Amino acid sequence: xxxxxxxxxxxxxxxxxxxxxxxxxxxxxxxxxxxxxxxxxxxxxxxxxxxxxxxxxxxxxxxxxxxxxxxxxxxxxxxxxxxxxxxxxxxxxxxxxxxxxxxxxxxxxxxxxxxxxxxxxxxxxxxxxxxxxxxxxxxxxxxxxxxxxxxxxxxxxxxxxxxxxxxxxxxxxxxxxxxxxxxxxxxxxxxxxxxxxxxxxxxxxxxxxxxxxxxxxxxxxxxxxxxxxxxxxxxxxxxxxxxxxxxxxxxxxxxxxxxxxxxxxxxxxxxxxxxxxxxxxxxxxxxxxxxxxxxxxxxxxxxxxxxxxxxxxxxx
Length: 316
Description:
Layout: H1 2-16, H2 21-28, H3 32-44, E1 49-52, E2 58-61, H4 74-88, H5 94-105, H6 112-118, H7 133-148, E3 150-157, E4 163-176, E5 179-186, E6 191-196, E7 200-209, H8 221-226, E8 233-239, H9 244-251, E9 257-258, E10 264-270, H10 274-281, E11 287-291, H11 293-315
């Protein structure tokens, strides 16, 4: 921890110039005395730390000092910083922000303007349009659980509406199609499961600790589970031309084909659950399920119930 703090202090001084000891102490949640000890340690290690006196004084570094950047090229740095800034749009993290500062600090001053422009050539914004505070709090607790190998507890509502209480061993946070998921070993199910964060409530750290299990995350095991042939059902959908662009966004242009009568056909595969019916109904009157017949019938039944609900609300 101290080593990380020392490196972070150097980076901050490179990027921001002079800083007050009190500022650094507040930033790292330590005492001012600890910061001065850190400054002494940096000086003994050969880092040219300078203490300036007076009203505009503070702690700084000898002008022109830079960290060694031999291991990374300019393109490497741009790619890393762009990725870090993108993930930070929905998952803020002080350590990640400091890492961006560290990487920026090793860019020569003459190239800094071009570097900053390159890291803003495109922005991936994963943040929600409204009220991200609840998500940030969940991510913070889960991060702690992953870092400290500590179980977490929460109430969970499945896609089918079933309410359960879970204790899990958090392994990996997954961002997929603008939604955060937790891949964790569930004590109740005795297997790894995916949990959608928006369905998790009352997320807290548990007293239990765990040993991280060997999982080949490169193979994205959650994707394999979701796309298992026995977990999916083939569906044929007919779209009106006015929502052709939406169908193409979901299924790809090559999978949205004209039927010769002004409509478009897509053959897709999804797990059959409440999400599927909500997804189909989301296209309103501009989609028709052609096959299988039981899904077609279920969509029709749900649509009829929706009509009845509105009729009853008007009568009452």
